[in-house]
Each structure stands twice: as structure tokens, then as C-alpha cells.
Design brief:
The protein has 306 residues and is α/β, with parallel strands linked by helices. It is built from 13 helices and ten strands. The radius of gyration is 18 Å and the shape is globular. The termini are close together.
Length: 306
């Protein structure tokens, strides 16, 4: 069995995520406390209590990452290890945690800055839209032929592509895509045109924050969203994280690469089951688990250990 850990991105968050782990597991509680001490945020209030901030990018990202790392730490304590890891957008930072490329305090500080910079980069006039039932090449061609800035943000899975850019250009592209045969184009409730060229400035600011941070060689390989290829050395990591903010997220290609290289078991770690759904659309031949709640952890550990 060859196992991959995968971590979800923004949009999967919900009030109360990770609370059962925090209340029950020392390792999880320590992670939330570390994230709070590094960022100066009340992580319990942000992740566990009803509030409006949880769906605001600059707060969503740190709350999601803290939850993902907390769950992974508990899973790791059960002796379940990965051969490779990956994530979708901010979920890539969960993969960075598993790969131990930087200290967790630095990882939490960087994801907090990433959320702020992405929030500030293009505060109004941007949009994202999920395109259902169309081949990626067709979506690419129509985006390129549309006036204004619009491009692919996410290659999620077969039949689901996300486009991003200036609001008018995204709307225009969606109309063309529908006319060309897309089943549906669904607007996403986001606060910016994430993973578009409009966020290059945010990537540059993030790169400056990364400059003084010590980066280590990954203890296990992870796949970059930018290249859908393995990162096995420290040298390219900062540049890839800079590009990731404004580049397309190649999650489908990353899953295909892992399956090609022998991964037959995927464990999604974090809120929801979004990535599990994507992976099953890529292949029905692999085993897919998700760990969102404490009860999920017990079930997965039992099945994996058999």
C-alpha cells in the first residue's frame, strides 16, 4: 500500500471544525495554541464559535491550516504515515507541514500573511466560477479568446474547472462556455480572483516574507500546485510558493501523477469531503478516506491498520 495525505483548501471551512480534536487530543490542542500564539488570534473563537471572520480570507486560511495540522498530528501519533502528500491551494501548506520543510511557527506566520496579502491584492471587481461538464482544453481556449483577464484557477477533477479573473471577463467567459456546451457555470462565494495574474503582487509580498525563513529538504515528497510534480529539495520551494498565489492549481494532474506512481490510498485530512469527491472522479480504483471528525480518525486507523 502506498499512501498519500491530501489537504483541502478554502471553502471547506465551517464553524466548529477541529473542536472535537482540540477537546480530546493533547497534540491537537497544542497546535491550535501554537497558531494562536504566533498570529495573536483567538483560534478557539475563530474556528469553534459562530463568527463572520471565518469566511474572510485573511482569517480562513490560518483557521483551516491549524485544523488540518492538528488532525494530522493526531493521525501521526497513531502511527499512520504518508509516502507522499499534496493539497489544494492553501491545502498545500498542510503538505508542507507533513514534509517538515519549515518550523510550524513559521508556517503559521506565513499562511497568516498569505491570507492578508491575497485579501488586499484585489479587494473588489474580481470573481471565480466553477465550470461543470467541459474539457479543460475547451475552457482554456475560451478564456484565452475572452477580452479582459480570465484564466483557469483550479483543475479540480474531470468535468470541474474553476475560472478566475476580472468580474466582467469571468462573466463573459461563462456565457461563452455555456453556449459551447458547459453543463453549468456556478459563481463561487469568494472575496477575490484567486490564482489569477491579478494576485501576482500578493505573491511577491509573500516571497519577501519567506526570504529570511529557513527551508529544509522535504522529509517526504509533496506535489506543487504549480507544476503537479514532486518537490524533493529545499531550493525551489520559496519560488514555487510565490508562483502558487497567482498560478493555476493543478490538483487533478497531481492526483493522476500520484496514482501513476503507485499511490493506491488517499487520506483527506481536514474539513469536509471535497477532495475525496475529486479523487473518486479521477479514479474509482483507489481507496479514499477522509478525516474531518474524531470518529473518522478511529474508523480510518482501524481500516488502514487491518
Amino acid at each position: 500500500m502506498k499512501t498519500a495525505f491530501v489537504f483541502p483548501g478554502q471553502g471547506a471551512q465551517y464553524c466548529g471544525m477541529g473542536k472535537d480534536f482540540y477537546d480530546t487530543c493533547r497534540e491537537a490542542k497544542e497546535i491550535f495554541e501554537l497558531a494562536g500564539s504566533v498570529t495573536g488570534l483567538d483560534m478557539k473563537a475563530l474556528a469553534f464559535e459562530e463568527n463572520e471572520q471565518l469566511n474572510v480570507t485573511e482569517y480562513t486560511q490560518i483557521a483551516m491550516l491549524a485544523t488540518e495540522v492538528a488532525i494530522w498530528k493526531v493521525l501521526d501519533g497513531k502511527g499512520i504515515k504518508a509516502d507522499v502528500c499534496a493539497g489544494l491551494s492553501l491545502g498545500e501548506y498542510g503538505a508542507l507541514a507533513v514534509s517538515e520543510v519549515m518550523e510550524l511557527k513559521d508556517l503559521f506566520r506565513i499562511i497568516r500573511k498569505r491570507g492578508i496579502y491575497m485579501q488586499e491584492a484585489y479587494p473588489t471587481g474580481g470573481a471565480m466560477m466553477a465550470v461543470l461538464g467541459m474539457e479543460a482544453m475547451q475552457v482554456e481556449e475560451i478564456c484565452e479568446a475572452t477580452e479582459g483577464i480570465v484564466s483557469i484557477a483550479n483543475y479540480n477533477c474531470p468535468g470541474q474547472i474553476v475560472i478566475t479573473g476580472q468580474e466582467q471577463a469571468v462573466q463573459s467567459a461563462a456565457e461563452k462556455l455555456t453556449q459551447a456546451g458547459a453543463k453549468r457555470c456556478v459563481p463561487l462565494k469568494v472575496s477575490g480572483p484567486f490564482h489569477s495574474s491579478l494576485l501576482q503582487g500578493a505573491g511577491e509580498k509573500l516571497f519577501e516574507e519567506l526570504a529570511p525563513i529557513a527551508i529544509r529538504k522535504p522529509v517526504i515528497p509533496y506535489l506543487s500546485n504549480v507544476t503537479a510534480d514532486y518537490v524533493t529539495e529545499a531550493e525551489p520551494i520559496k519560488e514555487l510558493l510565490k508562483k502558487q498565489v497567482s498560478s493555476s492549481v493543478r490538483f487533478q494532474q497531481s492526483v493522476e501523477r500520484m496514482i501513476h506512481d503507485g499511490v493506491d490510498t488517499f487520506i483527506e485530512i481536514g474539513p469536509g469531503k471535497t477532495l475525496s469527491s475529486f479523487i473518486r472522479k479521477v479514479s474509482r480504483e483507489v481507496k479514499v478516506y477522509n478525516i474531518d471528525k474524531l470518529e473518522d480518525l478511529d474508523r480510518v486507523v482501524e481500516e488502514i491498520s487491518c
